[in-house]
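User: Predict the structure for this protein chain, please.
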Amino acid sequence: DVERLRDAGERDMRAFQKYREEAGRTECSLRSSVGMLENALAEAVARLRVLEIQNLAERNATEELRARNVSMSSHLAEYSKIAESLYSLAQNTGGNAKSNG
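Assistant: Here is the predicted structure, written as structure tokens:
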């Protein structure tokens, strides 16, 4: 009877040791997976920050171009008015020169 109990106890100890070893491997694998996920997350966050900075730079460039466009449109309107005035003046001056000539 004692011999059977001892054998059963040894079997239980071996089974428990296998369980502990498997649990240790599982824990090691999980730690490794978590480490890889943490690294991937850190890289993704870093990339996101880079993209946010690029997006902000593009927005600033777009706003600058928009402001330049407004300015150029204003200058173009002024130049158009000046050109019309000069054309009108030339028509009036040319007409007077012909009538005076």
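The mean pLDDT is 93.
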